[in-house]
Every structure is written in C-alpha cells, then in structure tokens.
Amino acid sequence: MPPIVVRDPDFDLADVPRHWLANSAAATGLANAINMLFPVGERFFVRSVNAFKAAWRDDPALAARVKAFYAQEGHHASAHDDFNAVLARHYAVDRFLRWYAEDNAKWERRMPAKLRLATTAAAEHFTAIMAESALTTDGLAVAHPEMRKLLLWHAAEEIEHKHVAFDVLQAVNPSYALRMAGLALATVNLAAWWMVATAMLLHQDGVTPRSARREMKAIRAHTAQMQRPEQPIFSGVFARGIREYARRDFHPRQHDNYALAAAYLAQAGLEPRAEAA
To answer: Nearest-CA neighbor of 228 among 136, 158, 128, 163?
Structure first.
C-alpha cells in the first residue's frame, strides 16, 4: 500500500466557463451538483474521524494515515470552496449552499458519533468509485483544463486515502449492522442532495428533464463512438458501491487501484509536502 501524500497544488479557475464540461448544460450541471457538495462533506468526514482519537492515537501507523487524511481532505475542501466561488458567478447557489450546510449540521448534531463515522466510511467508498471512474474513463477529456486538473488531483488522493475512515471504524466498532446503517445513510444523503442540486442548476439554465436526457444521450453516443468507456451514475456508482460494501468481508484495500492514482500523480508532477505510510 503506497503512502498517503499531502499536496497543495494551485488551480487557476478564474476563466472556467459556465458550461465547462463538454460545453453541455446537462453534463456540467450534473458534475457541478456533486462538486459543490464537497466542502461540507469533506469537513464532516474529518470531524467524524477526529471524534475517535482514542481509537488511533496509540497506533503510530494508523495515526499517521489519519493525519495525512485530515490534510488531504482539508486541501480538497479549500479547493472546492474556490470552485464554489466561481460557480456563484454563473449561478445563484449561495442560498442552496447555506441550506445544505445548515441541514447537514442539524443532522450531524443528532447523529451518534459512531453512526457519523460509519456514514463517513461508506461515503468514502462511493467517492473512491467516482475517483476511479474519473481516472479510467477519460470522461474529463472534454472538461476545461483547470477543472480537469482539479478533479483528477482530487480523484487520485481519494484513492490514496480510501481505506482510512474504514480502518478507524473497524478499530472503533467492527459491527456489520453499524456499517450497513452508515451505508444506508450515505446512500440516501448523497443521492438526494445530488439530485436536488442538479435540478436547481438545470432550472437556472432553463434545461428541462427531457432536454437534459437528450443532451446526455448525445454525449453518451459521442463517447461510445470515440471508444471511451463510461460509468453510469446509478449502476456504476451506487449499485456497485452498495454491492461491494455489503460484503461481510469487505475492505477498501481489496480493490488495489493505488497504482492508478500514483500513475496520474507522477504524470502530473504533483510533489509531496509530507506523507504517511
């Protein structure tokens, strides 16, 4: 297993256009919808793991991985804050983002700490699947260059640390029932907010569900013609994620795609500042 490396690259997002993915309102709206959720989500993940310092502070190897996980997630949240500031120039998103943050804070206060950790571990599995898709399907080849760099860096680091929250959960409470409760909450929360955010953005673009389907169908036809594989959201992310995570013997390390992340990071020339084994 490779080290978890802390990087803090800069991205020049000033010239990112309104429809930065395939020049498509539908494709960009779908991508924007998940990306705009990341700052709140990443910081929730860090707090959820940090609530259980006693479970990992006496294990030097796990403690090092957790601290590198914190640093990576902090940089991801900051980079996506910058993205949201750019997004706010094109769309009225501030009210939605406040609603999203306030609603998540309300539920976070009500959830038991172990359930928050279990939800984090499951959500990290979904993000790792999306990260692998970003690095293997080349769907971002039609993205604005700076957005492509931002999202592929984020994807590679999600793969690097995909096991950390799960390792902490196993150290705190390896209960299968708890793991499944976290999976249920992560699935419902991610799917619901992703759909609501997408609908909000498409509405502002004047895109109806029917026209959005037509745009996405045309994009899928083009990618098939270009012989680029595609990962559908429902079957490729949610169905696959649930199927894998529900195995009693599941562990994120079982799917060894760390070399995929390492290859991109080396090719991109992203240098480390610190690392954990």
So the answer is: 136
Write out the residue range of the structural domain in which residue 258 sits.
4-276
Nearest 5 degrees, angle CA 266-CA 233-CA 214? 115
Residue carrying the six token digits 């294990």: 59
65 alpha-carbon distance from chain centroid: 18
Q: Per-residue pLDDT tens for 67-113?
A: 999 999 999 999 999 999 999 999 999 999 999 999 999 999 999 99
Q: What b-and-e string marks burial along 197-224, b requiring 16 or more CB atoms within 10 Å of the CB?
A: bbebbbeebebeeeebeebbeebeeebe
CA distances from 125 to 2, 93, 243, 244 (A): 18, 27, 11, 9
Task: Report d(CA 42, CA 256) in Å as an integer.
Answer: 23
> What does the alpha-carbon distance between residue 222 and residue 142 come to, in Å, rounded to a whole number?
11
What pTM, to 2 d.p., does this model score? 0.92
Distance CA 12, CA 273 (A): 20
Q: How many domains does the chain have?
A: 1
